[in-house]
Amino acid sequence: LLGRIVAPRGKPLDGLPPSEVEPKLRLAFADFKGMKERTNQYRSLFTGVTSVDFSVPVGRGQTMLFQGSDKEKDKEYLWADLMCCQAGPGAKSGPVVNICVCPTPAYAMRLRDELRQRGCFEDRCTLVVAESETSGAQVVAMNGALAMAEEINDLDGEAMVLMDLEPMHKLFSVLADAAGQERIDRGIVQQIEASEWTDFDGTLLRESIAERRKIWFNLVSRATNSIVGGSVSLLGWLWEQDGGWQHRAQKSYLAKIEAVKKTPRIDEKILERMVDKLKEQAAAEGVPLTETFDEPAIEVPGVPNWEIEELKSITDGHILLQPPSNPDAWSWYLEPYKSLPRLGTDALHPALLSVEAHKLRLKMLQGRDRQKMLHLSLGEGGLMDDPRKLEMKFVELLIEQPAGQPLDVVGQCARLLIVSDSNVDPLKAEGMCTSETLSFLAAQLLQSEAGARLRQDIVEKNEVSQETIDACDTEVRSWNSA
């Protein structure tokens, strides 16, 4: 499979001869592993994207939901970075394979060429292309890719599957329409008046959260960190329908306002102030209440807002991406305050734990809370009471990273050590608090004696000693603005 473009059942599509290895049969639509077959031993999946590895870390065997900002550009510029994922510290002894479900043969060819330029296609990548662009064929390809990943898992390897989840939404909607109409025709359910459809936002079956959740759950639960074997990690992507969030948020605020107006035995002036307060909150969140936003039709590209919210509840975490600050240079631009890592013990167990990334993330979240209280837009120096004070605008440099420039663990740790110190004079200089300055400083740190110790610790020990952290702090504080 390595270095190949194949159909969901393994047939080569790249013009190269088929493998001479005897083929093996696996179920494409297989049952997911039970809890007794899984382990909670945490192993990091290093993406090379600092904002992800630092604030929303992905563990091997987890399902992480990515909510992108532009479907075409995200697939063109960002997916290749994830396909470059390496084994990382603590990986199992078997093969490391990154599998991407490609929407078309043309996209697979472009992605293959990009990965070849980066030197990682032949040794750890497989591209799966559906037999057509219909939602049914795409779903077959998604499950075929997971079956391949499960074979890698059985070989004590680490498999990652990257896919667009929208075909699942489309397929269920088609089936729901057919099944719902059939149930009405047979008299199993009663025909519902058109006025009542508004409350359901669709058909009775289509909006059955329980029915959809079963189908989604069967897919996302195939990600596993096995007791016997390796892991299957699933990185699923969705893009929201235009206008979906505005419709849902507007509907919520209008309902709250109506509920307030119906409050019995309350003074008119107090009632008016309560309504005005809700309108202010809506305006602050960018929710217009004067114009009506209708629920997007099923034909509108993307997935409804409500379905994305449901998916968030059954995946291990979600990552919300914003449009880049420069639309002409696509980049990873993560919204760390609305993204959420896996809840539970792993929530504070980031990939970069060895340089206290978990403490820095907590301070960052607390700092944003204080910003809101102080009505600040960037955060002031020394927001926290700890001796290692936090400069919010330093840490927020980690949020955006140019596409096509994934970092190794050493480079990520160097950046974290720099921004976690509020006394970095070069970043304090006027106009110099930029990601370019941070990249330059990280290179400077890694060229120093302290940086050499940092690299040695990570490579040889898979952790950074306190002595090395102190040495890096001393090096960073020795820099001047020039």
What's this model, at a glance?
By secondary structure, this protein is of the alpha/beta class. It has helices at 50-55, 71-83, 105-117, 121-124, 135-154, 166-185, 194-200, 209-220, 244-261, 268-284, 305-312, 357-374, 392-395, 409-419, 425-428, 435-447, 449-461, 466-477, and strands at 4-6, 63-67, 96-102, 125-129, 158-164, 224-225, 231-238, 317-320, 331-333, 400-402.
How does this model look, in words?
With 482 residues, this protein is α/β, with parallel strands linked by helices. Helices cover 44% and strands 10% of the residues. It has 18 helices and 10 strands. Strands 1, 2, 3, 4, 5, 6, 7 and 8 form an 8-stranded mixed beta sheet that branches. The chain has a two-stranded antiparallel ribbon with strand order 9-10. Helix 9 packs antiparallel against helix 10 and helix 14 packs across helix 17 (449-461). Mean pLDDT is 83; it is low at 194-207, 343-351 and 370-385.
Secondary structure layout plus pairing:
Blueprint: E1 4-6, H1 50-55, E2 63-67, H2 71-83, E3 96-102, H3 105-117, H4 121-124, E4 125-129, H5 135-154, E5 158-164, H6 166-185, H7 194-200, H8 209-220, E6 224-225, E7 231-238, H9 244-261, H10 268-284, H11 305-312, E8 317-320, E9 331-333, H12 357-374, H13 392-395, E10 400-402, H14 409-419, H15 425-428, H16 435-447, H17 449-461, H18 466-477
Parallel strand pairs: 1-4, 2-7, 2-8, 3-4, 3-5, 5-7
Antiparallel strand pairs: 6-7, 9-10
Helix pairs in contact: 5-6, 9-10, 14-16, 14-17, 16-17, 17-18
